Amino acid sequence: MTSKVFKLIAKEAHRQKYGLEMIPSENYVSENVLKALGSILTNKYSEGFPGRRYYGGNEVIDKIENYAQDLAKELFKVPIALVQSYSGSPANQAITMAVCKPGDVVMGLTLSSGGHLTHGAKLNFSSIFYKAVNYSVGDDWKINFEELETLAKKHKPKMIWVGTTAYPFKLDYKKFRKIADEVDATLVADISHITGLIIGGVHTSPVPYADIIMTTTHKTLRGPRGAMILVTERGLERDPEIKGKIERAIIPGIQGGPHNHQTAAIAVSLEEALKPSFKKYAIQVVNNAAVLAKELGTVSETHLILLSLTSYGYGMGYQAQYALEEAGITVNKNTIPGEPASPFYPSGIRLGTPALTTRGMKEKDMIKIARWIKRVLEEIRGLDLPKEQEQRKDFLNEAKARLNKNKNLKQIRKEIEDFAGKFPVPGVD
Ligand code: DSN
User: Fold this and answer.
1) 70 with 155, same domain?
2) I want to staple 132 with a disulfide (CB 3.0 to 4.6 A). Which of 127, 293, 336, 429 is the partner?
3) Each residue of 139-185: pLDDT tens digit?
4) Domain range holding 217?
5) Contact, 87 vs 226, CB < 8 A?
6) Whether 45 is catalytic
């Protein structure tokens, strides 16, 4: 080993093993996924699709990509699966290009309600090149279907996104389908966060309701970074040309050569997801999240928890993220519905159980973890965000420095390292 990079990877491996990874969109892949991802498949150019490549020498690559597509079709019971998108955002861009013309109306959940950038957020391609209309959640933090229906009838979207990144409740795809039918819109489900739960049978599948489905492969599915686009029977009936349209949007529309090592690693993760043990994993993810949420005084029906910190002070998201990181717990600050502070200095944190569950943690461990989280959050009391905008940056730097020296956090970190170190991380000794 001669590269400096390997020393840094060793440091990151230490962080992953001795800390608690609680960002709900992250996970640990298996050693086989790592092997495929680090394979010589990265050496090959393969623009095009199986049997239709611009370069020679793709006999094996074709087999791998066909195999990945077949596994995805089998797993989700859909007629079409495409696996080349580099990640979720370009996949969503490809779907939008295939379904809409520039200027068409697209509808999605607003970012501050737990939507995604590509579903029509300001500054994203989805609102720069298309007319984005956003629906939101109500006071109960649940999707406001009345608002969605009113907006859909008024703006007549070409496409409606149903998909979330910070939403702790189950999604009712049937209700979305009804509204999409009322305005003749294509319904696209972005299931990136909950793919694993759908495969495990602990969340309703969008397959009977959506026309097109997109999922990243690195979240609850436990594969490498990447994405898949699936077309349902219903979607194919709606537009028999849809496969070619999506393929052309991927290349030459957006991407260049596919990442064949990534495609192979996706295939490995799909093989794993087809095993009965994956179902058990998904059930445990949800059970763990429910216990963790209860211990933290809230609810979760999925893999994630959106925790409001308003009882600790004003605009406490950053401070909580810093303090938790100091103690060895990785989460991200997040807006809460009706954000009382600012989207840039939000009032909540988002945390989840997919990665912890992969390491073998169960309900009793969640109770311990909730106790640590509550102890950590006590340390941020009094560190309220200044109301004056210009003071915020300096204040947060000072708060971070203070938390960095906090003895109680150091003690909690020691306890967490002792605990976490006992649970294996695939690929880490
Ligand atoms: N970055 C992803 C997440 O954390 O939810 C969404 O793309």
Assistant:
1) yes
2) 127
3) 999 999 999 999 999 999 999 999 999 999 999 999 999 999 999 99
4) 31-273
5) yes
6) yes
